[in-house]
C-alpha cells in the first residue's frame, strides 16, 4: 500500500484547460466543458474529500455530445449546452442537449433534449457511470489505489456503488425515472417529436457509513428555495455593494464577492456557523493560514465570515502532543480533511504542521474586536488566544531565543511550514536550501502583531492594563531582536529566515512585505524595503514576485520561487500603505487589478512571474486553484487599502484616508457593517462622505492612537 505524506514535492494534479468546477460547501464537481467526467483524469464528483463519481459520460447512439457552451450563473449549478453529433453526410445537427447540473449533498442532473428538426428523432441515450472512491490526496497527485471491497448492485431504477475499508463504507446511489439500469450504465430510449422536447432527472446521493442524506435539490421544490440558494441570498443581502465607474474593476469586485460566497463551508454539527475554505478544486476544507488571511482581508465586507472562521479554528485547537499529526497544545491547525484515507497523509483528519497559523489566529481575534464583532463572542475566544500564545512561547520558540521556528517532527510532515510550503520554498541568495529549524521573517512579524492584538484585548475587554503593558513590552523586545538578527545592512532588505545555525538566509523575497504588514519593520529601514519590493528584480508589472529574479533559485514558472501570488501582493500593498508609501501601494494595486482584468475578472491562486515587458498578458500557472479564497479576497483588500480604511471600535475611531486612482472615482459603498450599524460611503476627488456611523465614532485621516494594521 502506498502511504502518502505531506512532503509531496510536486504541484497539484493538473486541471485541463476549459474544465468546469461547480461548488457547494465542501462538495464540488470537476468536469469537461461537455459535462462529462472522464475516467483516468482528476475529474469527478467529490464529497467529504472522497470521489464518489469517477466516470459520468453521456453518449447518444454511442457518440459524445458536442459541447457548445456552459452557463454558470451560480457556483453550485451549471447548464452544459451541446448538440448531438451530425449524422453522416450532414453539416449540422438538429438535436440540442441541455445538462442542468446542481451540486450539493450529492448531485442532481436534469437532461433536456430538444428536437429542432422537422422529423421525430429516436435514439439510445446511455450514461456511463463509475466510482473509484479515490481519496482527494490521491486524485490530485494522479495516483488512485484501489482499496477495500468494492461492490455494485442495481435494481430496475437504481444503481448502488459501494466501497468498504477500515471499518467504514462510502457509497453512491444513482437513480432516474425511465432508465434501464445495468452495473455501469443508465440507458434511456429517447423519442422526441419534431419541434418537441424530452427530459429526465438523475440523482446521485452519497451513502456514508450507511447513512443517505436528504437530497439538496429535490424535484418537488423550486431551486430558489433550496438551502444553497437561501444561503446565497442571505450572503448578498448582508454584503456591501461597491460601485465604481470602471466596469472592468466593477466586474472584478463582483466576481470576488461571488467566489468568496461559493467558498464558504458550514459545520454540519453547527449549520449556522460559517467559515471559509482555501480554494477550489483541491482545498475545499478549513485551512489555518489560508482561512485566517482570507478572513482578515474580507472583514470589510462580511465580518461574520471572519468570526465563524475564528470560532471553527478555536474548536479544533490542539490539546495534546502527537508527532504524526504535529498536534501540540494551543496550536492552530494547518488543514482539516474528512476522507477515510486522510489518515494515510495526515495521521488523522487534522494536520497541525504550520508555524504561522497560531499567531495569525491571535491577530484575527484582535481585528474582530476592532471591526465591532459581537464582544461576547470575541471575549469567549480569549482563552484560545492565550493558549495560542503559550504555544508561540513554548513550542514555537523551541530553543528559547525569542523567535518562532519550525522543523517537521517526522518524515511525513511538511518540510516548510510557512506559506511557501513547497520543498524549495525557502532558499538563500545562491539558491541553496537551508537546514532547519527555520525561523521565517514573516512569522516573527505575525508574533509581533499577535502580542499587540493581545494587549488590545486586555485593555478593551478585560480592563487589564498590566497584561496590556506586558504584551506591548514583549512586542517591543521582539522588534529589537528582529532588527539585530534579520536586517542585512549590505543588501537593504531583511533575510527571508534564520537557519538552524541562526545564520541569515539572505535571499530577497516577498516575505519582507508581510513584515511591513505586521508592523515589525523599523521605520528607518521601511523605505529601503518598499523600494526593494518595487524594484525591477521583484516587480513584474502584474505584481511582486515571490523571489527576486537576481536570486539563484529564481524560476518564474515555479510554485513559490519566482511566481506572483495575488494574496501575497494584497498583503504587501497593505504593508506599504501602513508605512505611508501610498504610491508604492497604488502601483501594486493597479498591477494586480490589471492582471485580474486579463483573467476575465477572477484572480487565480498564482501566476507565472514573467515581466510585463516580456509578455503582454500574465502567464497562467497551470495547476493554480480558481476560485481560490485569498486570491478572491485580494481585490477586496486592495479596495480597503486604497480607501485607507481601518476602524477601531474600542477607541470609537474610523480612519479614512482615500487615495483612489481617478478611474475609480466616484466610488460608493453601500451597506458596510460596523458593529450593529450599517454604513454607506462615497468618495469623490479623494474626499469621503460617510453616513450611518454608530453614535460616538469619529472619522479622521489620522490613525487610531492605539496603533493598528494600517499604522506603526
Automatic annotation (TrEMBL):
UniProt xrefs under InterPro entries: 6-hairpin_glycosidase_sf, 6hp_glycosidase-like_sf, GDE_N_bis, MGH1-like_GH
One Pfam family matching this protein: GDE_N_bis
Source organism of this protein record: Georgenia daeguensis
Domain Mannosylglycerate hydrolase MGH1-like glycoside hydrolase: 401-595
Superkingdom field: Bacteria
SUPFAM superfamilies: Six-hairpin glycosidases (SSF48208)
Name of the protein in its database record: Glycogen debranching N-terminal domain-containing protein
Span of domain Putative glycogen debranching enzyme N-terminal: 22-202
Cross-referenced Gene3D superfamilies: 1.50.10.10
